[in-house]
Write a structure and sequence with these properties.
47% of the residues lie in helices and 10% in strands. The chain has 20 helices and eleven strands. It has helices at residues 9-21, 26-32, 36-39, 58-70, 73-81, 106-124, 148-156, 175-182, 202-218, 225-229, 237-243, 266-276, 278-297, 304-318, 336-348, 380-385, 414-431, 458-479, 490-509, 519-531, and strands at residues 41-43, 47-50, 137-141, 166-170, 190-195, 230-234, 250-252, 323-328, 366-368, 392-397, 448-453. The protein starts with 8 loop residues before the first helix and ends with a helix. The structure holds 6-O-phosphono-beta-D-fructofuranose. Residues 143-146, 196-198, 201, 204, 259-260, 346, 486, 489 line the site of 6-O-phosphono-beta-D-fructofuranose. 6-O-phosphono-beta-D-fructofuranose binds next to loops.
Length: 535
């Protein structure tokens, strides 16, 4: 049996190593070892990863690799790729990586072929809405894993959008999301995708019902309106048909694809193929598959998702830095932090191990971020001079998506201007600047990694998707937790159902029965339904 994470031999050694590294400043580590950048970086044909500004040495990495071995990381990764039911609490396999196999198994290929044919028919105008107008607006209704990954990819790949196509994501049950995002849309050229693994998620079902009414109104209750303007991505065929969606317009996936890991399934395939064209979506899968193979075959210390997960564990469990900032120097990656937040925090925000025993070390991490340079004018103050240390991940590209501006002896273009910041910020964090005026003193010694890719393309966006997924998974494997369930989101849903019951009863009878409610909730509910704040 595998030892628990914090009773491994390496854990104790790493604790000592952490005490030891605290005696050094990154300035000193760079001066003492001129080969540090070379020794602590990774270069492949698709990325360059530099972790020389992390508070580690080669020896730390070797110890972290030992820890991974003690926690049997390799056999856990193999078990995942082999389809073993590693999601033990739900009795499920975890096979999202199979979705981007170069030769996908027949069930996967069948859905991809369906997406390909369907997207070609929509984009060519052979399949139209009830009035014969070509579709140009795609509205994707879904929340959490049924939105964030595809939204990250769509935002990253705007320059690859098919001419005239517009992709809109509606997630929040707040009517503002639906109202604002459908304002000005013509129902005649709008195709609505309901994306829900379970087809029961309250927010999605509410938005789906509102979308149905909106569409029927706009199309004068045309008898074929739902059939021609609604499609679904789900694992629940019966519920999709009960909603009225033509079974021919349903794109399936399977219980072995977790919500937050579902971007490579029809959840991402359908909206993205309609927006970017199928060939661009196929490139996303290729980029993800390239990273999958790198993940499966590279030694741990030369393996991007494993190395970055090991550094996270070092920062969280040994240095006590439990928050991470994700700072992409690319506007297109604006939605990557939100997607990463779900992947990391829903997967690894757990307090018990895989067999249900309580854990006495931190798991999970708080992830937040904004594209550079915007964050620099907002929260970077705390990262540079605050009392908390926040390890940062910088992501940058050699080439821009848009060539704007002049690059000459007197000025740099937009992209190089952006990259001056990508270069400067990690240095400011690591090396700081001493000043006798303490308010202006930069202590430095603040860790970061820099990931550089060639250009933000469908391929590299797919690579980053798989990096994000495997990085979180590796941490879960090493901590000994189940990263693939999410029972922590359930209680709030159950209590919400009870609130809805009280509201319906009040609507029907005019009586608010607050029996059994605690005083705080009772007061809030009364203000919302009866008293109001400003009657
Ligand atoms: O409430 C959390 C959650 O279950 C996520 O795990 C999931 O991504 C999201 O809700 C949406 O679920 P579904 O795709 O079933 O609507």
């Amino acid at each position: 049996m595998t030892a628990g994470f914090n009773s491994t031999d390496s854990f104790k050694k790493l604790k000592n190593a952490a005490e030891n590294i605290k005696q050094f400043h990154l300035r000193q580590l760079f001066v003492e070892n001129p080969n540090r950048a070379e020794q602590l970086s990774l270069k492949t044909e698709h990325f360059y990863f530099d972790c020389s500004r992390q508070l580690v040495t080669k020896e730390t990495i070797a110890l972290l690799v030992k820890l991974a071995n003690e926690m049997e990381l390799k056999s856990k990764i193999d078990a995942m790729f082999n389809g073993e039911k590693i999601n033990a609490t739900e009795g499920r396999s975890v096979l999202h990586a199979a979705l981007r196999d170069a030769n996908p198994r027949p069930v996967i290929k069948e859905v991809l072929d369906h997406v390909k044919t369907f997207s070609k028919e929509i984009l060519s105008g052979t399949k139209t809405g009830v009035t014969g107008k070509k579709f140009k607006n795609i509205v994707s209704i879904g929340i959490g894993g049924s939105c964030l990954g595809p939204e990250y990819l769509a935002t990253a790949l705007r320059p690859y959008a098919q001419p005239g196509m517009n992709l809109i994501f509606i997630a929040n049950v707040d009517g503002a999301d639906f109202t604002e995002k459908t304002a000005g849309l013509d129902t005649a050229d709008t195709l609505i995708i309901i994306v829900s693994k379970t087809f029961t998620t309250a927010e999605t079902m509410k938005n789906a019902a509102t979308a149905k009414a909106w569409l029927l109104k706009g199309l004068n209750n045309h008898p074929e309106a739902i059939k021609k303007h609604f499609v679904a991505v789900s694992t629940a065929a019966d519920k999709v048909s009960a909603f009225g969606i033509d079974p021919a317009n349903m794109f399936g996936f399977w219980d072995w694809v977790g919500g937050r890991f579902s971007s490579s399934s029809a959840v991402g395939a359908l909206p993205l193929a309609l927006y970017l064209g199928y060939d661009n979506f196929a490139q996303i899968l290729q980029g993800a598959n390239w990273l999958d193979r790198h993940f499966q075959s590279s030694p741990f210390e030369n393996n991007l998702p494993i190395l970055s997960a090991l550094l996270d564990i070092w920062n969280i469990n040994f240095l006590g830095y439990e928050t991470r900032a994700l700072l992409p120097y690319a506007q297109g990656l604006a939605k990557l932090p939100a997607h990463t937040q779900q992947v990391e925090m829903e997967s690894n925000g757990k307090s018990v191990d895989i067999s249900g025993q309580p854990l006495y070390f931190p798991t999970g991490e708080i992830v937040f971020g904004e594209p550079g340079t915007n964050g620099q004018h907002s929260f970077y103050q705390l990262i540079h001079q605050g009392t908390q240390i926040i390890p940062c991940d910088f992501i940058g590209f050699v080439k821009p998506q848009y060539e704007i501006g002049v690059n000459s002896a007197t000025e740099v273009n937009h992209h190089l201007e952006l990259m001056t910041n990508f270069l400067a910020q990690p240095d400011a964090l690591a090396f700081g600047k001493e000043d006798s005026n303490k308010a202006k003193n930069f202590p430095g010694n603040r860790p970061s990694s820099s990931l550089l890719l060639d250009k933000l393309t469908p391929f590299s966006a797919g690579l980053l998707l798989a990096w994000t997924e495997h990085r979180a998974t590796v941490k879960g494997f090493i901590w000994g937790i189940n990263s693939f369930d999410q029972f922590g989101v359930e209680l709030g849903k159950v209590l919400g159902v009870e609130q809805r019951r009280l509201m319906l009863e009040f609507n029907a009878t005019g009586i608010l029965n607050t029996q059994g409610l605690n005083a705080s909730t009772e007061q809030l509910l009364k203000l919302i339904l009866i008293d109001n704040l400003n009657p």
